[in-house]
Write a structure and sequence with these properties.
CATH topology of one domain: Beta Polymerase, domain 2
Helix content: 40-55%
Shape: elongated
CATH superfamily of one domain: Beta Polymerase, domain 2
Distance between the termini: 77 Å
CATH architecture of one domain: 2-Layer Sandwich
Oligomer: single chain
Number of helices: 18
CATH class of one domain: Alpha Beta
Strand order of the largest sheet: 3-4-5-2-1-8-9
């Protein structure tokens, strides 16, 4: 029984990057032996166990073969006879197919260290094409390591194009696809994720709405540079689309509600925000009411951030709209209630008072 660190922990240590999660691989053991040593089994697809004290995951070495469509269409075989090399060859990229033993010795049968040095994202074997999720994963790694100069190998890009043309991407579940998209959007250069998907034909299959029309990757890049949250980045990416297209994308990937809402609001209201200084008080109030700036101020801030990311110069409209929101919020609803107003009458009085506040604000 031999235990190795594998995958990202080895890769990132060699790159000098922080190592957060560690994946452990056990070679030469049976499930019964793991039980006997106090490891607790988890998962039904293949033998994975939790360490009795650390709680970290330890997987038995395994092989796999394609048995169906999509990410889950595989049959796994775990056995003490499966070698380290056999386990590593089923992995996606050479830089993820290295192992390290307890003495710090690196096992690198597929030349991952050479590809690290050459800054290349290269598939391990032809079996790469059997898993369509790897198209998204490679594009995500390209986004993560773009600051270090990494590029996708031509032959790997060709395999990714082959997967896109096969229709296998359509077999991916919404949850698995969104998980990769979400992680990619939060990388330091998320625009690279979109560019790689476009270059291999996968964007046309997964997000055809983004294939043509205005290029929003610069806005997405700025959002990453300013460390904006996920909802802002998603809204920046979809800003140029029609509401129907945004709704289709949101539904296709079961996007979180916060991201859905902001993307639609940005598409609808960003053009008016760009002309904020010319908006009539009534239109300003309509915008503020739509965003519910009284109870959900952060959503309006996220909206302004998404608008700001679309331009490479200053965006004075943001400060102007913040001031308008402050003026509208300053109206004392409690005073109106103390005067005896309730229900519809209170709502109309609040609206009138806020409109007067915005008229005074525009007059400053």
């Amino acid at each position: 029984m031999h235990i190795y660190k594998v995958g990202g922990a080895v890769r990132d240590r060699l790159l000098g990057r922080p190592v957060s999660d560690i994946d452990w691989l056990v070679v030469g053991a049976t499930a019964e032996e793991m039980h006997a040593k106090g490891y607790r089994p988890v998962g039904a697809d293949f033998p994975v166990f939790l360490h009795p004290t650390t709680g970290e995951e330890y997987a038995l070495a395994r092989t796999e073969r394609k048995s169906g469509r999509g990410y889950g269409g595989f049959t796994f075989h775990a056995s003490p006879d499966v070698t380290l090399e056999q386990d590593l060859i089923r992995r996606d990229l050479t830089i993820n197919a290295m192992a390290e033993d307890e003495h710090g010795t690196v096992y690198d049968p597929y030349h991952g260290q050479a590809d690290l040095e050459q800054r290349i994202l290269r598939h391990v074997s032809a079996a790469f094409a059997e898993d369509p999720l790897r198209v998204l994963r490679v594009a995500r790694f390209a986004a993560r390591y773009a600051p270090l100069g990494f590029q996708v190998a031509d032959e790997t890009l060709a395999l990714m194009r082959q997967i896109a043309e096969s229709g296998e991407l359509q077999a991916l579940t919404a949850e698995r696809s969104w998980k990769e998209i979400e992680r990619a959007l939060m990388e330091s250069q998320p625009q690279v994720f979109i560019q790689v998907l476009r270059s291999c034909g996968a964007l046309r299959e997964l997000m055809p709405e983004l294939e043509h029309g205005a290029d929003t990757t610069m806005a997405l890049q700025r959002a990453a540079q300013h460390q904006q949250p996920l909802a802002v980045r998603w809204a920046c990416l979809l800003r140029a689309l029609e509401p129907a297209a945004i709704k289709a994308l949101n539904q296709r990937f079961k996007v979180p509600r916060e991201c859905q809402e902001l993307a639609l609001l940005v598409a609808e209201w960003a053009p008016l925000a760009d002309d904020a200084l010319q908006l009539a008080p009534a239109k300003l109030l309509e915008m503020l009411q739509k965003f519910d700036v009284y109870r959900r101020p952060q959503r309006f801030e996220d909206f302004l951030a998404a608008c700001q990311m679309a331009v490479s110069v200053g965006y004075p409209q943001a400060a102007y709209l913040r001031g308008a929101a402050t003026a509208a919020r300053a109206v004392d609803a409690q005073a109106l209630m103390r005067s005896g107003l309730t229900g519809q009458g209170l709502g109309e009085a609040l609206k009138d008072a806020r409109l007067k506040a915005l008229e005074a604000y525009k007059g400053d």
